[in-house]
């Protein structure tokens, strides 16, 4: 069995801007255009929008390969996604743009996702009929009565939920919360729902469509749920968009288009410092460190669109950011993920694009070959096995004990035997999921208020906005940030400041 670990996406260096040698100085007076920090889907789309509008833009990306969480990792002859990444077509403008850029490299894939629930496999998101099949009648009756009772209770006594546990109980009733959510949420995050903000439920967690059906029945009986909103489920029937090399293609082609339009993409360069003008009103330069040479370089800028983790952005301001802002930024952490990318000597391993599991050493197993990924040799397949973890723990390090647990669960699920696994590749990032810990909201508000106080900086995307967009939504956020830059430029051109 051969092995590799993707070590490049390490947590930001503890070395702060204060320890910098003075960056090389360049004149800051010439029009310098926009600097986009980070080359994931959001940064790429922001840069593309600006480049297509004829605006000068430079994108700075820490990694050698663009795409952020959605980039492809080549190991040997094969590509591994950091969690199978397929594009949704929900945003027509974004979709048409990406469709045009990907051309013949785009393939269409009918969504075929499953969830292992109560010992059987069901379509994901879970449908009402399937959920009923998965629960024994007594448990179903208990959960339905619980839903009814809690709905009635909260209708009479509306309260703002204090944490994720209360939000889930308001939505689903205590029996269903205990049965379906409590343990899984704790395992996933590494802490109980009582330590998670209610905001997480309203912005991230898909609503169980089964529960919606029950709720519709309750609404007919006069129990309207207007207390807590949860995001709607993904569609259970949908065409997704992918490529024969997996997630690798889309970011590569978008970056090529940006460069073709005459703009600059700087790879393997970590943004380390933002320089604010003497009035403390605008950022005038971005300093980054080249990975190859270790050199610091400084780029003058008129605007900055940042898609890097919001905590790292604030660190890059150094003492230009107030102490309270820096303290708040430190509260905005992210959950790490480690993907075990496996090359398996088996033509096909699962009967879906991906399957969610609730009680295994992994949360999801994807088989991108079922979406059209080319695997070499062709009688092998690639499995993308997803876990959440902490940086430096046994899962992150790919410890033998974790591998054994994963391999044993893969075998017990009939997916593959340990002796069929011929390569193991660890793909990991400290910035998998923004952690909506209890009370994070005022910290996020303080940090975003500071960024907004600087007239020419926006922080956006999944890491910069500290939120949970899919790729099309992250790209939409990038487009909106770019449009705001273009509006500012045209306003300043129309009425130039003295
Ligand atoms: C397991 C998993 C599966 C997913 N599957 C799907 C899917 O199937 N479909 C879908 O639509 N979405 C999916 N998503 C969501 C998708 O990954 C995100 O929506 C998208 O990547 C967000 O893009 P972004 O540009 O905002 O952030 P990111 O992709 O995180 O990009 C941020 C970029 O900033 C760079 N950066 C960080 N620090 C610095 C620095 N100091 N200097 C320079 N650069 C820096 C990073 O290297 C990165 O390239 C999935 C997410 C996960 C975690």
Overall description:
The chain has helices at 41-52, 92-102, 128-134, 137-156, 164-172, 174-189, 198-203, 209-220, 249-260, 310-317, 323-329, 394-397, 400-412, 441-453, 461-464, 471-494, and strands at residues 2-5, 34-37, 57-60, 72-75, 78-81, 107-110, 113-117, 120-123, 239-242, 264-266, 269-276, 283-290, 296-300, 303-306, 334-344, 354-356, 364-366, 381-389, 421-434, 457-459. A hairpin with a 7-residue loop joins strand 16 (354-356) and strand 17. It has three domains: 11-71 and 85-106 and 241-332 and 437-494, FAD/NAD(P)-binding domain; 126-220, no CATH class; 334-434, Polyamine Oxidase, Chain A, domain 2, CATH 3.90.660.20. It is built from 16 helices and 20 strands. The strands form five sheets. An eight-stranded mixed sheet has the order 1-19-15-18-17-16-7-8. The longest helix has 24 residues, at 471-494. It is of the alpha/beta class and 498 residues long. Flavin-adenine dinucleotide is lined by residues 37-43, 60-63, 68-70, 83-88, 270-271, 307-309, 312, 337, 386, 431-432, 461-463, 469-472, 474.
